[in-house]
C-alpha cells in the first residue's frame, strides 16, 4: 500500500488551476446571493369581491403582509402604499396597469409588488376562504409568481372531530402559509434596462362603452409644465390604430379622442412616445370594454301555482338571474296593478340582488288590495344597455268565507258548512266543548260543503256549548270563528263572533 501511494503521480498544477477556475464563479455567485439584500415588496390592499367590485379587505391584507415578512422580504410601510393609491386616484385594486406598477417601483422604492383578490370569504357554521395572489417585478411589470388557493372547514375536519375549525380565524393559520409556500424567496432582476415613460396619471373613460361611443384618453407626464417644448410625441395605440395626443386647452393634459370599435371585446390601450432623438418608449396605460349586448335577464317568482296561475298571500319571492352573468350598474323592480298604476318601485345602483321579497305592500306602506299584478324587473349593464322581464301574479289575502248553518233538534244540533268564496281550502276543523271544557265533537276535512251532528249531553238541558271553527286556504289565509253557545245560535239567538288571525313581516 505504501509503495502504491508512493508511485501515485502528483496532481499537475494546471489541472488544479482549472478546477479552481470552475469552482470560483460558483462560489462568487453563492456569496453574492448570500450577501444580496432582501427584496423590497409593496403589498397592496386585497380586493374583496365578496363585498363589492371595489371592496377592500385590510384584515386579510395584514395576514399576507406578516407571511411575506416571515419569508425574509422587506415590506413597504402600509401608510406609504395608501398615499401612493390616493395620489394616483386608484379606486379598484387587484389589477394595476403596467405604468402604475412601474410608478409604484419608482415612488415606493419597491422591487416587487404583490396584489391579490379575495374570491370567497364565508363565515358561519361552514367557514371557507379563497384568495388569488400575483407577484410582479416593478422594473418591467412582469409577473414572476402567482397562486390561487382555497380552504374550507371540511378540508380540515378530522375523523374524530377533535380541534375541528369553528370559524374563519381557525383556518388562517393553515391557509396563509400554504398560499405563499411556493412564493420565491429570490427573484432574478429584469434583463436590461426598461425604458419607461414617466407617466404621472392617466384618465381613460369610459371603461365600458357601446360600439361607436367616444373614448377619451388624457395623460399627464410628470413635470410637464417645464417640458412643454421637450416632450416626446405621444400616440395612444389600440390594436393597429394610432391616435396622436395633443395638449388640451388648459395645458394640463395630453389628450386624444376616438370612437369605440364595432366589435365587442376588451381593448388594450398602450402609449408610445417618440423622442426628438428617435428613441421610442411604450407602456400599457389601460383598457376598456366594448359591449353591444344587453343583459339576458330572467325572472322567477316563487309562490303557489294553481291551474297555471301564480298566487301568493303572505310573501312573494322575486329571483332575478342573468343567463350570462356580468356586473350591472343598477336595477329596478316595479309592481303594476291592472289599471297600469305603479304601486311599488324599488331599485339601487349596485349589483343584482340574489332575491327580493314582496309582502303585498305598496311603496307608501299600505296594504295592496286583492287582485292581479305584474312584477317587472329591469337591469342596466355598465354601458347603459338595459333589459327587462315581467311576470303576472295574483295577490289573495282575504281569509276563507265559510257559511255556518245550524239546525236545532231535540237531542242534537246539525251543523252544515259551506264555502261562499275564496281560494281552495287546505283544511278545516270544528270543535264543540261541554260546559266543563270536555271535547264533545271534533269534525274536520279539506272540502266543503260538509255537515255533521253534535249530540247534546244528557242532564244539561240549556247549558252553553262553545264551538270553534278554523279554516285555512291553500295560501295560508286563515279564518277563526268562535260561537259562544251552539244551542242559542242554532235557535236563532247568537250569531257568533269572527276574528282573523294573520302574521306579516314587511320587507317592501
CATH topology of the largest domain: Rossmann fold
Q: Work out the number of β strands.
A: 33
Question: What is the overall pLDDT average?
Answer: 81
Secondary structure tally, helices? 7
**What best-fitting shape do the alpha-carbon axes yield?**
elongated
What does the main sheet amount to? 7 strands, mixed
The percent of residues in helical segments reads 10-25%
Structure description:
- The protein has 508 residues and is α+β, with helices and mostly antiparallel strands.
- The chain has four domains: 40-179, Rossmann fold (3-Layer(aba) Sandwich), CATH 3.40.50; 199-290, Immunoglobulin-like, CATH 2.60.40; 297-395, Immunoglobulin-like (Sandwich), CATH 2.60.40; 401-501, Immunoglobulin-like, CATH 2.60.40.
- Helix content is 16%, strand content 43%.
- Strands 1, 2, 3, 4, 5, 6 and 7 form a seven-stranded mixed beta sheet that branches. It has a six-stranded mixed beta sheet with strand order 18-19-25-24-21-22, with no helix packed on it. The chain has a five-stranded mixed beta sheet with strand order 9-16-15-11-12, covered by helices on one side.
- A hairpin with a 5-residue loop joins strand 28 and strand 29 (439-445).
- It is elongated and about 120 Å long.
- Residues 1-36 and 494-508 have low confidence and may be disordered.
Amino acid at each position: 500500500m505504501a509503495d502504491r501511494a508512493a508511485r501515485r503521480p502528483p496532481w499537475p498544477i494546471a489541472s488544479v488551476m482549472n478546477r479552481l477556475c470552475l469552482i470560483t464563479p460558483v462560489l462568487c455567485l453563492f456569496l453574492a446571493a448570500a450577501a444580496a439584500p432582501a427584496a423590497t415588496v409593496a403589498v397592496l390592499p386585497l380586493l374583496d369581491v365578496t363585498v363589492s367590485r371595489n371592496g377592500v379587505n385590510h384584515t386579510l391584507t395584514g395576514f399576507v403582509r406578516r407571511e411575506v415578512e416571515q419569508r425574509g422580504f422587506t415590506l413597504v410601510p402600509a401608510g406609504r402604499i395608501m398615499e401612493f393609491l390616493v395620489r394616483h386616484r386608484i379606486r379598484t385594486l387587484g389589477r394595476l396597469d403596467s405604468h402604475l406598477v412601474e410608478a409604484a417601483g419608482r415612488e415606493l422604492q419597491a422591487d416587487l409588488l404583490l396584489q391579490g383578490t379575495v374570491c370567497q370569504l364565508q363565515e358561519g357554521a361552514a367557514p371557507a376562504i379563497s384568495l388569488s395572489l400575483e407577484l410582479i417585478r416593478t422594473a418591467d411589470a412582469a409577473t414572476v409568481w402567482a397562486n390561487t388557493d382555497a380552504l374550507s372547514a371540511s378540508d380540515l375536519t378530522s375523523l374524530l372531530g377533535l380541534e375541528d375549525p369553528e370559524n374563519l380565524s381557525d383556518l388562517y393559520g393553515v391557509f396563509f402559509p400554504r398560499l405563499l409556500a411556493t412564493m420565491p424567496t429570490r427573484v432574478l432582476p429584469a434583463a436590461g434596462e426598461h425604458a419607461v415613460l414617466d407617466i404621472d396619471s392617466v384618465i381613460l373613460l369610459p371603461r365600458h362603452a357601446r360600439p361607436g361611443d367616444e373614448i377619451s384618453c388624457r395623460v399627464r407626464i410628470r413635470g410637464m409644465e417645464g417640458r412643454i417644448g421637450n416632450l416626446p410625441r405621444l400616440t395612444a395605440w389600440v390594436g393597429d390604430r394610432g391616435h396622436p395626443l395633443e395638449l388640451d386647452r388648459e395645458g394640463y393634459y395630453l389628450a386624444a379622442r376616438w370612437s369605440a370599435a364595432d366589435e365587442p371585446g376588451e381593448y388594450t390601450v398602450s402609449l408610445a412616445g417618440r423622442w426628438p432623438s428617435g428613441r421610442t418608449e411604450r407602456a400599457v396605460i389601460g383598457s376598456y370594454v366594448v359591449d353591444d349586448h344587453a343583459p339576458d335577464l330572467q325572472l322567477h317568482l316563487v309562490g303557489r301555482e294553481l291551474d297555471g296561475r301564480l298566487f301568493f298571500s303572505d310573501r312573494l319571492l322575486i329571483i332575478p338571474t342573468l343567463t350570462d352573468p356580468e356586473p350591472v350598474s343598477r336595477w329596478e323592480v316595479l309592481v303594476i296593478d291592472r289599471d297600469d298604476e305603479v304601486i311599488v318601485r324599488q331599485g339601487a345602483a349596485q349589483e343584482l340582488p340574489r332575491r327580493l321579497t314582496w309582502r303585498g305592500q305598496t311603496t307608501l306602506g299600505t296594504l295592496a288590495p286583492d287582485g292581479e299584478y305584474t312584477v317587472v324587473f329591469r337591469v342596466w349593464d355598465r354601458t347603459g344597455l338595459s333589459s327587462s322581464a315581467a311576470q303576472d301574479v295574483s295577490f289573495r289575502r282575504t281569509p276563507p268565507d265559510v257559511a255556518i248553518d245550524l239546525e236545532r233538534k231535540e237531542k242534537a244540533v246539525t251543523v252544515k258548512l259551506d264555502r261562499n268564496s275564496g281560494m281552495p281550502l287546505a283544511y278545516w276543523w270544528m270543535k264543540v266543548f261541554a260546559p266543563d271544557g270536555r271535547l264533545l265533537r271534533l269534525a274536520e276535512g279539506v272540502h266543503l260543503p260538509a255537515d255533521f251532528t253534535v249530540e247534546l249531553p244528557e242532564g244539561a238541558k240549556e247549558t252553553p256549548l262553545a264551538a270553534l271553527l278554523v279554516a285555512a286556504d291553500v295560501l295560508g289565509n286563515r279564518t277563526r270563528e268562535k260561537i259562544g253557545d251552539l244551542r242559542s245560535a242554532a235557535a236563532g239567538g247568537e250569531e257568533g263572533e269572527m276574528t282573523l288571525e294573520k302574521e306579516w313581516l314587511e320587507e317592501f
